[in-house]
From TrEMBL:
<dbReference type="InterPro" id="IPR029753">
    <property type="entry name" value="D-isomer_DH_CS"/>
</dbReference>
<feature type="domain" description="D-isomer specific 2-hydroxyacid dehydrogenase NAD-binding">
    <location>
        <begin position="118"/>
        <end position="292"/>
    </location>
</feature>
<dbReference type="InterPro" id="IPR036291">
    <property type="entry name" value="NAD(P)-bd_dom_sf"/>
</dbReference>
<dbReference type="Pfam" id="PF02826">
    <property type="entry name" value="2-Hacid_dh_C"/>
</dbReference>
<dbReference type="InterPro" id="IPR006140">
    <property type="entry name" value="D-isomer_DH_NAD-bd"/>
</dbReference>
<keyword id="KW-0520">NAD</keyword>
<keyword id="KW-0560">Oxidoreductase</keyword>
<dbReference type="GO" id="GO:0016616">
    <property type="term" value="F:oxidoreductase activity, acting on the CH-OH group of donors, NAD or NADP as acceptor"/>
</dbReference>
<dbReference type="GO" id="GO:0051287">
    <property type="term" value="F:NAD binding"/>
</dbReference>
<protein>
    <submittedName>
        <fullName>Putative D-isomer specific 2-hydroxyacid dehydrogenase</fullName>
        <ecNumber>1.1.1.-</ecNumber>
    </submittedName>
</protein>
Amino acid sequence: MTAPVPPARPDPPARPIVAVLCADRRPPGMREVERGADVRYTTADRLAGDLRGADALLVWDFRSSALEAAWPAADALRWTHVASAGVDAVLFPALRDSDVVLTNSRGVFEGPVAEYVLGLVLAFAKDLAGTMAAQRERRWWYREAERVDGATAVIVGTGPIGRAVARTLRAVGMRVEGVGRGGRGHDPDFGVVHGLDALTRRLGHADYVVVAAPLTARTTGLVDAAALAAMKPSARLINVGRGALVVTADLVAALRAGIIAGAALDVFDTEPLPAGSPLWSMPNVLVSPHMAGDVVGHLPMLAALFVDNYGRWRRGLPLRNVVDKYLGYVPVPAAATRD
């Protein structure tokens, strides 16, 4: 059962203390926040000390897992904002069960991730990696490419990123369907959405399986040996969600055995991907360093979203992108699925 979302209007003090967890780069465009608040730019090793007395926290270094260890020092915290779409790194039980409001950066990454997925689909269909390898070898290697028009994509995850992927792939003539938390027909972006319990049955229809779901207790390890075995031998897996959605050992075994034709992975259960991982050298695998949503100008966009939410918080207005901490993502009303 889903717990109620905490109130989205935590009243700030006259001059709040805002902690900002960052690594080597501070967020740009913070002058408006600095004018009206005491801003503590901090790092993982100093976070506990800087959280004491802080009213709000910006997790700019969204890959950091330092907040859980520092949480006992959060004696005044009312609001935490994460500079990413996924919030799994901060959804430890103490924060989830607290009254602290959690917001994310929904709205920044959807379009870029969808473009990246389309690029990966085209790279596989047109064998761009093979063409580039042949060019480096000065080898004239003629062969026929695949069409994407008419190919089928099963998109696992029907939130804003999954929807943007669906619209983008449909624009080049692909057939799409979704697999999400609940099934429904006549969806404006997917046509049909199947429940997670139907995942294995739907995978056999896919030429491309795109994983874009949030990481929750229910989705961890979702793509395992059984799911991979249900895919067509000619199918490719694309993961732009979270690494732990896919069981890495099962994927490596499936690729080696020819159970699926290939995989494009932008996220991994351990990041950076260790140098000894077999994924680096597999000829049917494309590896990228968690960059599908990162485009030129995305850092100012992330900072601007936080600054806008900060202004709302100071004025007592509803915050944007309030996460249901028990679901693990921002619920989207059915009427807003095309936003």
